[in-house]
Structure formats: C-alpha cells, structure tokens
Amino acid sequence: MIVLVIVLLVFGRGKIPELMGDMAKGIKSFKKGMADDEVAEDKRTVEHRADETVSAVKEKASKG
Q1: First to last CA, the chain
Q2: How many domains would you assign to the chain?
C-alpha cells in the first residue's frame, strides 16, 4: 500500500495510465514476436523433414 502511494506521488495521476498503456503495448509486442519465432521454427522443421523424406526415397530408388 505504501509503495502505491509513493509511486503516485512520484509519477502523478496522469502519468500512471500512460505507463501502464506503454507496458501493455510492450507485452503484446513481445508475445507477437515469440509467436512469430515459433511459426518460423515450425516451418524449418517441416522443410527439414521433407528433405529427409526426399533423401530416403532417392536412396531406396537407387538401391532397388
């Protein structure tokens, strides 16, 4: 409770909502960046597996 009073005195009433809005935008941006990285990683995994499958098929074709 005391911390809230000190923060209110230091930043004032108008600045706190602005800071919270900026923090929310930062969190959204971070989450979006993390989601984009996961999608890119998934694509690389699929492409890698496709390459392995093609290589395996070529090996079987050359042996048989």
Answers
A1: 77
A2: 1
pLDDT digits (tens, 9 = 90+) for 5-41: 888 888 777 887 888 899 999 999 999 988 887 766 6
Instruction: Give a yes or no: residue 41 inside a domain.
Output: yes
Cα 46 from chain centroid (whole Å): 19
| b (16+ CB within 10 A) / e for 9-19 | eeeeeeeeeee
DSSP alpha helix (H) spans, 1-14: 2-11
